[in-house]
Amino acid sequence: MIRSIASTLRPGPVVLLALLLPSVAGAGTLVVDASGGGDFPDLPPAIAAAAPGDTIVVRDGVYSAFTVGKPLVLVAEAGQTPAAAAAVVTGIPPAGEVSIGGLALGRVELRDSSGGLSWSTAASFILR
What is the pTM of this model? Predict the structure, then answer.
């Protein structure tokens, strides 16, 4: 059965996706909870401890400003809207990606470590 399936595969997006999955499969999940019920009580130490590709789930609370310098996913726990004073995203490799969802942020800065990209806003908003 495996041989017959393998013989019908042609190089393309599906095969490429399968080849990329092992690098994502090791991704972990960390929980940030200001009340102490998670792995970390604040975002900066959770981000420092996270490996590229990890997901950080953020529970309700008010958190310190943070900087993300590696591919990560930061997402509010379902039904919650945690807040942080500011987020800076910088130095992400070309194939890397940072995703921030459901966090209320006072300020956001996006910077390219080579100086090619710089964007910031002082307005409060929620990234979804």
Answer: 0.71
Q: Round to whole Å and give the CA distance between 7 and 114.
A: 45
For the cut 60, the answer to whether the pLDDT of residue 69 exceeds it is yes
Q: At which residue do the structure tokens 């990234």 appear?
A: 127
Residue spans per domain, the chain: 26-127
